[in-house]
Automatic annotation (TrEMBL):
Domain spans labelled Cupin type-2: 33-100
Pfam family for this entry, one: Cupin_2
Protein name: Cupin domain-containing protein
InterPro entries with a match to the protein in the record: Cupin_2, PKS_Associated_Protein, RmlC-like_jellyroll, RmlC_Cupin_sf
Amino acid sequence: MKAFRLDELEAERAANDGAYLQFLRERNMSVGLYALNAGEHDPQQPHNQDEVYFVVSGRAAITVGMETTQVARGSVVYVPAGVAHKFHHISEDLRVLVVFSPPES
């Protein structure tokens, strides 16, 4: 078993000065913590993997393809591989768990 604490993951991510911290990688999936602060620009490009976002905290909008929805703590969003997507209108610091399948390359 592998178990993680969100507060420890956030501290590690912040200490490395990066928006993304991959903390689990297995043969069929990887999981990371993604952080964008209020007002920040999301630099993501489409990925070659399916993704699931689980919003841990914060508020924003996300556009996936041509669809836009508001997200906040507890929101879950699926993004198919190869589809353009970005968080925007980030009104509260955003922390999101990201699951990639297959693992992010």
